[in-house]
Amino acid sequence: MAVVVALLINPVGLVFWLALCLTIWFAVNRTDRERRRYLRAIHPKHPEIGRFFWIGLVVGALVSLVMVIGRLQISLAALLALSGLTLVALLFSKWRFSPWWLGLASLAAVGQSGLLAEQHAANLAILVGLLWLTQAGLARFNRGDEIESPVIQQDRRQRQSAAFELRQLFWVPLILPVAVENVSNLPLLAVTVQSLTFVGLPLLLGATFMTPRDRAQTAWRRSWPWYGGAGGVLIVYGIVARTMTLPLLVSLVFPAVVSLVLVGGFIWQGRQVHLTVTLADQGVVLIGVVPHTPAAEMGLQPGDRVLACNHHSVNNSRELYDAIQKEPTYCRLRLRQADGELRLAETAIFAGAPHELGMILFPEETA
Fold this sequence. Notes:
This protein is an alpha+beta fold. It has two domains: 2-270, no CATH class; 279-361, Roll (Pdz3 Domain). Helix content is 45%, strand content 21%. The strands form two sheets. Strands 6, 7, 8, 9, 10 and 11 form a six-stranded antiparallel beta sheet that branches. The chain is elongated, with a radius of gyration of 25 Å. The model has no long low-confidence stretch (mean pLDDT 85).
């Protein structure tokens, strides 16, 4: 038991190393796949690795500060539940990761009783609410366009379409106050100040998923009202539970119920269709745009369809390339945006490399 506790409740323990290895693997796998399918990496510098550290550290410091200043003690059972749930979620992060399950940690205190258990349950609700509010902020202001990657899919009729994948984890090391008697005989990295002991806890925020119904960046952004609302509800509930006498069972079940409502909302949201990108007979469909290229300067977006280039109609990448050669220093495009609007775009082209527009197309060729 002591070894399990030491592995789970440690800011640089099992959760940290597994999350770091997965983050590096996600990033390297993304660029390798893009080079194989599209002949170049869309975002070759692996920005998700740096964000794993610095954004998570800032978030962890802010949340820890609130918990320490408020002297909001958490039970050892809740700490183990949070870390254990994080570890389980990591095992499935290749397919999907979203911290909706944080509220389920409240069920770890089932069987406890007394005023102290009620206070710990209320404090846990506040902690989970703070983490969900943070996740809402990360989703609302995400830079997913810098790590979003198109994935080619085929239906039963062999028609090609593009889904969009995003994988970004944030390591959030927390310093949380716990009761001294809970950890006095356990091999933990802990600091005791007066009657409080502060223990490090590794958690993760972020998102990993693939969607064929929207761009990954906007799909993640659509989750922020859900997380913001759920986080606000739990914080208000935790404050009320600390100031009023509420049944312990309510404090244990309520965060878990909010978690289930949250995941239900995400399932409903994931079924909504906002954007579909399919290979078309007319025009050339973009599935990605390389940053700092002429395509990016023209404001092109995945889902846009180029209908004409330099006054020549184009229906495939070869025709697009030939049209670019007609005027190798400048590019004029007529395109239909994903929302159906027609617009014109133009820009200068890199000298000596007219083919490097930065447009990622279905893997016939890349312009």
